[in-house]
Amino acid sequence: MDAIVLAGGYATRLWPITKHRPKMFLPVGDTTVIDGVLEDLESDPRIDDVYVSTNERFADAFEDHLETNDYHKPQLSIEDTTDEDEKFGVIGALAQLVDRENLEDDTIVIAGDNLLSFGVSEFIDFFQKRQTPTLAAYDVGDYDRATSYGVLELEDDGREIVAFEEKPDDPPSTLVSVACYGFRAADLELLETYLDGENNPDEPGWFVQWLVDRERVDAFTFDGAWYDIGTPESYLDAVAWRFDGDSAIHSDASLEGTTVGPNVHVMAGAQVTDATLRDCVVFPDATIADCTIERAVVDTETEIRATDVESALVGPEMTLEETVSTR
Questions:
Q1: Where is the chain membrane-spanning (predicted)?
Q2: How confident is the model at residue 288, as a pLDDT?
Q3: Which of 7, 96, 242, 322 could form an S-S bond across to 29 if both were Cys, CB 3.0 to 4.6 Å?
């Protein structure tokens, strides 16, 4: 089998921290969002090649990341876009990749911004056993939240999907697709048919909805945790889940007179003095003094003094010196 890791988004909801950094590289504990996926695929002997689908703007960053981490299977497959307005949609980009790389095997397709509590190998086991197009599904337990995803209903056997609707206004359940798919080679051939029919080229769920109306599609359901790293809230929630109340202070960071609360990640070169930190991520070489930082991300080489920051993303190389509480 092959695998495709979708990493072509521009993450505008996480700007400014992702304006010049792929969101897949955001740290979550001692790893990054995308590395959990890549490491699983690297270690599974059933996966031959891993295609990381990204855009031209971030291609160099991904090239450096793959080389630095000494992966063997992943290789870049670059979309011809540099801006959100130029994107083909996820299905359009997927179809182009299948054609560009001449893929002819069963393929795992997974979003690079997914933080999953199951191993990808477990999903591959299920997909191989079922021999049907397959997706991973998670019960978000909230109907309002479910409206943001593809929502499915299952047959009594708990596997076969009998109905699927992408981003419904009135979801019939709270069981949603989590952007982890197993497609047979024959399913990939249908991408062109789907797009030729002038169907929605955006989220993969539209293609799944189209497939469910034509053949059996199965669901791999799981408990535990799942985070779609697309908003500041989901990113910080994922960090909190990973740390589970603990914190990580890099040995090259300097903290003096500082209270460190739960779920705090302070990276190398950061200098924190007379501050309180709770549920936050502080990037390398940031300077923080005489303030409280809570539910926030402070980017590289930013300086915050006598300024309480709550529920905020503070971009790189900024200086804050007056009291704010902002999103």
A1: none
A2: 98
A3: 242
